[in-house]
Amino acid sequence: MNLSQIEWPTNVEVRTVTLESLRDSHFDELGAICRHPEIWEHTLVSLLDADDFQRWFTNIRALGDEKKVFPFAVRLTSTNKVVGHTALVGIDVEQDNATIAWTWLVPHVWGTSVSVELRLGLLRFAFDKLRAKRVEAKLDNLNERNKRLFVRLGANFEGCHLQYQYRRVSGGRRDAAVFSFLARDWPILSCNIERLVDERLQRQKLK
Asked: CB-based contacts of 144: which residues, under 8 Å, 6+ apart?
């Protein structure tokens, strides 16, 4: 990876969503989304408290400006509303690796094409722009909904890191389910994820 050549800030357009590099103008909409307590059931930290959100936002904006992380607000094109956030973190320029993290969505779009499209956009940015060789995600092993999604996306399940991290919201330690996407698989993966987007959009039309 050569981060000096990466165009940033930038937008990544998918089908019905656009990933917008995080800006100060996203603060109010993201802050409102954070007030949904169900978002934080399987996360390491909670941004339910306004002060916690303020500190997090200030920190991730600064890291984004330095290209140490790549944070995105997720905007739904049809309503022009921000519906969530996602990011690439753990940027390893020597090994060409990155990690998907800080992904959360307003509950009413869970299970829709938005969940798939934001990962498609993020992976496009990672593989096509950053030229990453490996992108991973660590999920709470109790988060069955997200684990099923990553299987549908075609991610490699690499097993669990047992008792990996403290679950600061609900207490105790969590096992982390590790998934990965590899650059060598990206041409096929991208086509499969596009088809999954088609499936979800078609299902939404029938409702």
From this structure: none
